[in-house]
Write a structure and sequence with these properties.
Blueprint: H1 2-6, H2 27-63, H3 72-93, H4 108-112, H5 114-120, H6 132-178, H7 183-208
Helix pairs in contact: 2-3, 2-6, 3-6, 3-7, 6-7
Length: 214
């Protein structure tokens, strides 16, 4: 147990830290988690925004019924955040193929020991000739991490985008109920807030573009 815990402690080695725990997760599971974060956290942001702006809109419309129709655009902006997550989740899902059988390491000692891996990092011992299983896993880890991080990037950018649009839309509805000339001015601010989610989508697509798991 002490030896296993020592791998999680920070030191001068490349592998001796708690990040080694991520290497024990299946690449397919890691990619699926990223896809789930992409859609799940995006929907959370959209729901949060709709709840915030919708409650203010309904309450303010009691005193000023004229604001009901045009302020629905704030709800549409929040719903677009969830659509961003759905699109990215579909794109990331297409990058995962059916798992294939892979070769095993012929040199079990040289390919699986920490000393050998440290000495040849970032390459595999012997150029990977006798470590086909480790080489296959290494090639799987890159797309898995790329898909996972793309999902995290898109999910959390959409979460904060949804919160931003929801709060801004809430203020827009309340301000419009008091003064109709303020609607267009605050709507411009809301449009800039909704663009935050697009930034995450663009970066997520770029991050996952070279990744494919098969």
């Amino acid at each position: 147990m002490t030896t296993q815990m020592s791998y999680m402690l920070p030191s001068a080695g490349y592998f001796d830290n708690w990040l080694i725990l991520f290497e024990q997760i299946s690449p397919y599971a890691l990619a699926d988690i990223g896809i789930g974060i992409s859609i799940g956290v995006s929907v959370l942001g959209a729901a949060w925004g709709i709840f915030t702006t919708g409650s203010s809109l309904v309450g303010a419309a009691i005193k000023a019924p004229r604001i009901r129709s045009k302020n629905l655009i704030s709800v549409i902006f929040c719903e677009a955040v969830a659509i961003y997550g759905v699109i990215i989740a579909i794109i990331l899902s297409t990058k995962m193929g059916t798992p294939e059988a892979y070769a095993v390491n012929t040199d079990t000692e040289g390919c699986n020991t920490m000393a050998a891996l440290r000495s040849s990092w970032p390459q595999l011992p012997g150029g990977g000739a006798s470590c086909q299983g480790s080489l296959y896993m290494k090639n799987l880890l890159f797309p898995a991490y790329a898909i996972f991080n793309a999902g995290v990037c898109v999910g959390f950018s959409n979460l904060f985008c949804g919160v931003c649009v929801g709060i801004t839309g809430s203020g827009c509805a309340l301000a419009d109920a008091q003064n109709g000339t303020l609607f267009v001015k605050i709507l411009i601010i809301e449009i800039f807030g909704s663009a935050l989610g697009l930034f995450g989508v663009i970066v997520g697509i770029i991050m996952s573009s070279p990744a494919y798991i098969k």
